[in-house]
Write a structure and sequence with these properties.
The protein has 5 helices and 5 strands, in the order H-E-H-E-H-E-E-H-E-H. By secondary structure, it is of the alpha/beta class. It has one domain: 3-Layer(aba) Sandwich (Rossmann fold). It has a 5-stranded mixed β-sheet with strand order 2-1-3-5-4, with helices on both faces. Helix 2 links the parallel strand 1 and strand 2. It is globular and about 40 Å long.
Length: about 160
């Protein structure tokens, strides 16, 4: 059996020099310390074409990224790409015009979405230049990691 069908690819998306936008990268790095056998980790900047390439051939994919939807900072969202459209305005701080939401919609149109594609987002508080995430986003990371681990266990 294809190993990619048995494993889960988790893509941490972000830019570690844009405040809370580093969230996805931080989560991927913390998940790496958990040594979950089914989990394969990748880090991406959020550029849409690179995301399409990264998940190519995978059945189970989880994407983690900071979002900006106007909700309270630190709010955790779980979106199933096969059950709902991913709002493009969630990723307004992406440095690329073709970002996570657009990559998912392009994958949908082209028939190139993984069988299971889950997006976890945490509402950011600040996306200015500089390193380190805000305290409210950092406080959401343990719960987010627990949800991702439960998601993997449930597959």
């Amino acid at each position: 059996m294809n190993k990619r069908r048995q494993q889960v690819l988790c893509i941490g998306v972000g830019n570690e020099f844009r405040g809370d936008d580093a969230l996805g990268l931080m989560v991927a790095r913390q998940l790496a310390t958990r040594q979950i056998p089914e989990l394969v980790l990748d880090e991406q900047s959020g550029e849409g074409a690179a995301l399409l390439q990264a998940w190519s051939g995978w059945d189970n994919v989880i994407i983690v990224d900071a979002i900006s939807s106007g909700n309270a900072p630190g709010t955790i969202f779980r979106l199933d790409a096969h059950q709902q459209t991913i709002p493009t305005d969630f990723f307004v701080y992406s440095s690329h015009a073709f970002s996570v939401a657009e990559a998912i919609e392009m994958g949908r149109v082209l028939g190139q979405l993984p069988t299971r594609l889950i997006v976890y987002g945490v509402e950011g508080a600040r996306f200015d230049h500089g390193t380190g995430v805000s305290s409210v986003v950092e406080a959401a990371i343990p719960e987010l990691i627990a949800r991702i681990e439960a998601e993997i266990t449930g597959l």
